[in-house]
């Protein structure tokens, strides 16, 4: 286990009806807030109404920034920051999925800075102060609700960057699983793939830590189990609750600290997301993970996959190679069962391929398995389900 | 999963040499501290010297209260609180095992109160403020370093009480596994039994939570593995590190929140510890746990034990009863292998038995398995390895 510093001071209200404590917590942050949200799903599931009611009750003035999309753009962050400066906003309240939360977190930083938002995304060390951040998470996926990262896109530059800064950690997070019950199976499945990807990226690392690996396996098994349940019963509270809590712990650092490593699939996912912002992060990862694992196996790094096959998938083949192949096949089959498409439906030109490869190569040199240009091209081709790409 | 509020803002410095950041953290708390420690083991392992050096370097004045013993007495807390008031102490620095940390935590509360220390132990709601608490943990056991409980004894009254108050949570904890390498096998084994007891008490509860149960199993497997390693290699850094981190997470609330329950074995352990303060907490628990589990099995509550047998001990018997009996036997054998004695070497008179039973009965009525007077007497008799007790 490597040395580390653990610190996750986020206070989490978890469970049915917990949003009733929102007003009380917000008054600790100020009396003027900016509510950041997406396309309106929080109006459909009642979350918006509860937020507004809480704020009225506690005499909190609320400004609104809605319309945050998947792969939130830095322009949205700038708009939010301007609103904050103009109206003397004292805190950010972001309600929705990971994109909304990330956007809100970055607004909290940009509102307290003279520089541009994109500058802060690229140079997190320039973030010196942030507005207090309170979040209401409505989907189990990114774990942004208990994490100090914000992933922001710059669509005009075709870039997508993960900005990590301890100040971005939400002060308070509200997690009521009932608000995630209306999330459709497609987004639920993509969320599960996202959580699983965080667990896999952490698990497979040269740095070993017995405790963190056993806990990681337990979290992964929880994802498998919850996904199976939700396929047949999308409003199963226990499955929604377990998945929502797992999402936080897959990403908040706990399983990663003491066991550092490089995240290969997320490098691919961010670069693909930058170039194809219509693709969801979880979908991309569900396509990449089995393909990347197969390359890990090919390179002979089977030791950890044998543990993973045994403790996660209950596979105990006599020959290690059989175990690991069975485990990867089970993961692939699992994603299929969840209805995930198995490949990415994009037109990838040779020029795009060159650009993607150029961006990915330098980021995967110190990875668990170093990838060549050939490996990267192969993963990309397999991911779009084509042997060749057009000019 | 039941509703809960999660909040563990303790900052943890984990790993070799991390105590080098002590001075920097202490200066955030003030310039006058009280160092609380035990019998001097921190002088032998170099921890004391590092603490003093750090304080000198950062011009922090340090008063000392040494001699804290197993089952720390409330008189020691009073002494510490008086020292704090007399010298204008600004923070508590407790360095050692769980007893030292608990004593230091309670001093931090008593120093800010007009009432007696025992009053605060009995009525934690009267704790309104505490001095900042910084801890250096040197043994994997109680988890006090990341938990808001302090267990304090009142030897003159033969009482031992767990005082729970969120203000008692350490602000910063330093965990350097190398300081635990000099802990002998007896105390190491007792520590493992203590950690395992926390995990078992949490695991077996009417409230179910899939994630927490899977993580609990992973933490338990970590204990098993580390204990085996340390038997042959007491200075194995990885085993010491994993055990030390597991101790924190077995007790800090994370695995318990969402899955509340009553802790039967700790009721017995605290009452036995109150009457026989020479017994170590971990030793008592290693004796009680298998006996209690057998009663759980007898009462037909085998469902959770089957999961536990499978996921912790890798037992997959066809008949559930065979699985659970095998698992309990493996736990018992494991404690034997660690050198734990298997029964308590005390003279238990009939009068003591009556007194213990009188104290225990009201505390185990809402337990996972409600215990009768007969059950309690049986557990106690089995624990001392005798069929009858003398007058």
Your description of this structure?
2 copies of one chain form a homodimer. The first copy, chain A, has helices spanning 22-27, 41-44, 47-57, 74-87, 98-110, 117-122, 185-203, 210-232, 237-251, 264-275, 281-298, 303-313, 320-337, 350-360, 373-384; strands at residues 4-6, 11-14, 32-36, 61-65, 91-96, 133-137, 149-154, 159-164, 172-175. Chain A is an alpha/beta fold and 391 residues long. The first copy, chain A, has 2 domains: 11-180, Rossmann fold; 185-384, Dehydroquinate synthase-like - alpha domain (Dehydroquinate synthase-like, alpha domain), CATH 1.20.1090. In chain A, the strands form 2 sheets. Chain A has a 6-stranded parallel sheet with strand order 2-9-6-5-3-4, sandwiched between helices. Chain A has a two-stranded antiparallel sheet with strand order 7-8. The longest helix of chain A is centred in the middle third of the chain and has 23 residues, at 210-232. The interface between A and B is large, with 39 and 38 residues.
């Amino acid at each position: 286990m490597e040395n580390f510093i653990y610190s996750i001071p986020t206070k989490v209200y978890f469970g049915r009806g917990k949003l009733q404590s929102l007003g009380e917590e917000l008054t600790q942050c100020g009396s003027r807030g900016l509510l950041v949200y997406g396309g309106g799903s929080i109006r459909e599931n009642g979350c918006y109404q509860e937020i507004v009611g809480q704020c009225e009750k506690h005499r909190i003035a609320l400004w609104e920034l809605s319309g945050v999309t998947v792969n939130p753009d830095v322009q949205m962050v700038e708009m939010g920051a301007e609103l904050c400066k103009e109206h003397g906003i004292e805190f950010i309240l972001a309600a929705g999925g990971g994109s909304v939360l990330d956007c809100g977190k970055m607004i909290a930083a940009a509102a307290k800075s003279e520089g541009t938002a994109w500058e802060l995304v690229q140079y997190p060390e320039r973030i010196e102060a942030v507005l207090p951040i309170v979040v209401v998470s409505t989907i189990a996926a990114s774990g942004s609700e208990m994490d100090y990262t914000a992933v922001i896109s710059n669509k005009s530059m075709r870039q997508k960057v993960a900005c990590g800064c301890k100040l971005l950690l939400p002060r308070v997070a509200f997690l009521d699983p009932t608000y995630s019950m209306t999330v459709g199976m497609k987004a639920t499945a993509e969320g599960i793939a996202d959580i699983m990807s965080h667990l896999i990226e952490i698990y497979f690392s040269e740095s070993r830590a017995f405790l963190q690996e056993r806990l990681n396996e337990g979290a992964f098994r929880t994802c498998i189990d919850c996904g199976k349940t939700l396929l047949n019963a999308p409003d199963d509270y226990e499955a929604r609750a377990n998945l929502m809590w797992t999402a936080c712990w897959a990403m908040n650092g706990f399983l990663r600290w003491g066991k550092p490593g490089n995240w290969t699939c997320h490098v691919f996912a961010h670069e693909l997301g930058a170039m194809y912002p219509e693709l969801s992060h979880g979908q991309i990862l569900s396509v990449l993970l089995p393909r990347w694992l197969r390359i890990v196996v090919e390179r002979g790094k089977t030791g950890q996959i044998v543990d993973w096959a045994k403790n996660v998938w209950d596979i105990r083949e006599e020959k290690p190679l059989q175990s690991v192949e069975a485990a990867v096949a089970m993961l692939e089959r699992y994603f299929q069962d969840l209805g995930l498409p198995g490949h990415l439906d994009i037109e990838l030109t040779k020029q795009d391929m060159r650009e993607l490869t150029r961006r990915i190569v330098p980021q995967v040199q110190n990875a668990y398995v170093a990838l060549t240009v050939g490996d990267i091209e192969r993963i990309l081709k397999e991911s779009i389900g084509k042997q060749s790409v057009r000019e």
